[in-house]
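discrete fold record:
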Amino acid sequence: MMVRVSTITRSKGLFHPNECGSVPGLKSSDPCLTLTHKVRTLQRPMPKVSTLILDIKAAFDNVDTSTLRARLLASQIPSYMVVRGSSFLSEKDLYPGLPGLHQNPLPGFGRYPPRIAHLPPSLPPVRPPLHMAVTRGLMVSYIDDSAITVASPSYRGNICLLQRLFSTIALRGRGIGVSFSVPKTELIHGRTPSQRTPPSAVPIQLEGQSFHPSRVVRLLGYWFTTPLATTTHHFRNRLALAQAVFSSVKGLSSPGAGISPFVCHRIANGLVLPILTYGADLLTQNSSALRGMNSFWHRVQRWTTNSFFSTPTSILSREACLPPIFSYCRYRRRLAALRIACAPTTGNPASARLCHKG
């Protein structure tokens, strides 16, 4: 169903290729990779690059079901797909797209609250048509988060461009009943390692509110700094989150009692490791970040096997059957590179950059 809906909506032009959310085969790393590639490409001729991160207000809670239904029917989308999307938005139920079963939800699904995290991945045409082409820049989005990047000879010129683009998008959104959560807006001015001038403090004015540029911004769980080559902040945050989760898990029982080593291994491999290494498929740790992650991961491995603190760290991975952090992150990056290289350029904006010149 997901592949079918995605293929039909792409052929009908219902969403832009740079929209990545709720599309089969795409991950949150794809728009982030596309954004970082575009920023570095723009910084070659002119290092003054700025990015504005926007958030759609209440997202799918504000989608007009009748407008969406009319748009889908006008595009000759099959009726069962239209019923699937409109029923979810109007009644917050996930109905199967089969005749005679629309009145009975599938067992185990129940009623979904109107939240983005519960949006089924088979409903890509639900996104509002706010995407637009950006001259000497890029606009990329993932469900309700959008990032607009522009470049010009000066940061003040970037601010003027971003203000005009925001006004155009906001006007287009008001026409279909969609607005942006302006207080959640973030601005960052890109820099290169060779720039020696002080960071720009030029703010942007949006709907009467002023936003000063940040040194660090968050997009889809990735923490970006200026310059983009700096990844310490991202992995420091991931380490703090993993440590908090691990402290909660350790409170489930005392060492050697209550939880078997098998369950400890499942918790470490299925809960702690994904939190700790989120973003490793896109970002590379430096020696400082890797040292902190290794120290924490050794604690997790000792907890899994109930080993002594005197146990050499070189054998902890084998005893706990948990991979070393460095090897696992390198494995994640290789898998991500293979996925990007093999993905069709028409369906993945990150893959399209492989054959994109500038």
Notes: The mean pLDDT is 77. Residues 62-125 form one domain. The chain has eleven helices and eight strands. The chain has three domains: 17-59+129-229, 62-125, 232-337.
